[in-house]
Amino acid sequence: MVRRSDRRLDAHVVIDTVEPLREVNERLIVLLRSLHGDDWVKPTVHPDRNVKDLATHLLHGSLRRVTSIRDQYPVAPNYTSLIGRPEPSIECLADVTGLIQADNRCFMDGMRYVSPHIIIEMIAIYDALFVKIAEDIERDALGLGVLWAGENVSCNWFDMAREYTEKWHHQQQIRDAVGASLLNDPHLIGPAIDVFARGLPFAYRAFNALDGTMINIDVCDEIARSWSLRRDEQKWSLWEGATPAPVATICIPADTAWRMWTKGLNKMDARKRIRVTGNTELFEPLINFIGIMA
Questions:
Q1: Helix/strand/coil for 19
Q2: C-alpha angle 273-277-279 in degrees, rounded to nearest 5
């Protein structure tokens, strides 16, 4: 176990996802070009989305960001008008999620009669342009907020990192559906788990504890991550490494973590895969955390 350092994992500690993003996008093209006709209509973990729907959704993400960032063209839904608080409320998150999901569904329905070949061609073009944006963007400037981490406004690097988790986990779901090998290389799954973990203080926001309370969270497999959540001044913060005196230690496999945090694994099955020592009540916010707007 890694002992806790003095480094708090806040907005000043950047997770660099540009190179992983480039590789994930390239591997998506290879994967999609390998699919046969029946593969495109195979069901995914999403009850109402097949493989083609998820590929279309990934294209939609790149189109939206190239449109808004490169071309400075307004895109819908504009959820910023719903946010007027220091941090998102449950009502705010529900409203924004509804807008985003409606927009996603509209785009997928509109692409229903577009061929997979054209979708692949468009992904190849606009994913490359999106990587270029991620490379060139002023990473510490303020941009779109990562709401599932409790931020109405986020540094651009975190916004781009959030997009990495989207590209990575939806491709994982496509790979699951067609029986392809997963993107579990440590240099690809590691950054995704790191980004999701930044939302844990927000996930614990409603869990009251005494100041000085500390929780260890360990990813107990080949990517070997350890964090500690600490309660100070009635707020939770995330720290690098583990603390020697936690009130609870939660050990979670990386494959379980990303599936659970993207609504791809039900809570009953997740509980069977996670080990908790100490105060078991401190496990609940982690299992209820969702690192996507869904």
A1: helix
A2: 115
**Cis omega (within 30 of 0) for bond into 77:** yes
| pLDDT tens figures, 107-152 | 999 999 999 999 999 999 999 999 999 999 999 999 999 999 999 8
Closest among 253, 248, 250, 243 to 273, alpha carbons compared? 253
Domain 18-197: assigned CATH number: 1.20.120
Q: Measure Cα distances from 188 to 29, 47, 124 in Å.
A: 16, 26, 19
CATH 3.40.50.1980 holds for 200-288: no
> What pTM does this model have?
0.93
- Do residues 216 and 236 make contact, with C-beta atoms less than 8 angstroms apart? no
Could you give the residue range(s) of every CATH 1.20.120 domain in the chain?
Answer: 18-197
pLDDT of residue 224: 87
